[in-house]
Amino acid sequence: MLPAIIISSVIVLIAALCLFLFAPKKPAEAQKKEFYGRNFAHRGLFTADQTVPENSLPAFQRAVDAGYGVELDVQLSADGRVVVFHDDTLDRACGVASGVGDLTFDELRTLKLFGTAELIPDFESVLSVLGGKVPVIVELKNGKRNDELCEKTLKMLSGYDGAYCVESFSPFIVGWFRKNARGVLRGQLSQLPRDYAGAVPKPAAALLGACFFNFIARPNFIAHRSGKTTLPVRLAYALGAMRVTWTAHGREEEEYSDAVIFEHFSPDIRFR
Fold first, then answer.
1. 3-state secondary structure at position 84
2. DSSP labels, 106-154
């Protein structure tokens, strides 16, 4: 009798611990209304050959004209300007061996995106192009000045006339929005531990891949790389987190997702 009670108690404690660690914050219907069942253009509607570059004003204008939602990335320049750019460094997009945060906005504006005439835009200019016409998913890149980035990004988004939500690979950034902007739909970016590919140490990759830090962020959605997910991520979905999938190159992800971030094909604006 006593061993059975002990075993049952241990099972209950483990279940309670799992719920504490991995449970999301189920979004309200009003929060997810403009995002549910919708396709979002990854870094704008850019072309595979980068003649219309990713995260450029023309890419965002093309997405608006097509009626797609938009996903984009923000980080800070050296002088504290919120700029729209994905990579930590400028090598791939601009051919310059420098970090984005090491240059001022004026210095960044001397660079060309992928050999085109397009320049790195600031977040304010991008929001102006979007004009409140489409919903936007804003990924905040992890860096040394996260609080400053969160504060400035939220201030700009507060003036946006359309629907918006935020996401990040950093649970601490998502947690900042949990603390300071509870009404804003927030999401935890994740992928399998192996997909972090040395970007973080293996123990950290294991924890991030399992969304171990949901107790800090309590995300409303999990935005996961297309393909397999870990058991804790599936648990978060079962407990009410929206399922957002990136980056789709076909319609397959629509079958199991609540929202899809896509590139290089032309899906319907909505699939539900």
1. strand
2. HHHTTS-STTSS--PPBHHHHHHHHTTSS-EEEEEPP-S-HHHHHHHHH
pLDDT digits (tens, 9 = 90+) for 252-262: 999 999 999 99
Residue 131 Cα distances to 59, 74, 125, 207, 271, angstroms? 14, 17, 10, 38, 23
pLDDT surpasses 90 at 15? no
Class of domain 37-262: alpha beta
| Residues pairing with 73 in the sheet | 139
Residues whose CB falls within 8 Å of the CB of residue 258, separated by 6 or more in sequence, listed in order? 32, 35, 36, 37, 221, 242, 243, 244, 272
With a CB cutoff of 8 Å and minimum separation 6, the contacts of 141 are 73, 74, 75, 86, 88, 149, 168
The residue with tokens 């984005």 is 100
Coil/strand/helix, residue 155: helix
Token pair of 32 as six digits: 């997810």
Residue 203: is it exposed, middle or buried by C-beta count within 10 angstroms (0-12/13-18/19+)? exposed
Q: Provide Rg for the chain, Cα atoms.
A: 19
Distances (CA, A) of 132 to 54, 67, 153, 163, 178: 20, 12, 16, 7, 23
pTM: 0.95
Domain boundaries, the chain: 37-262
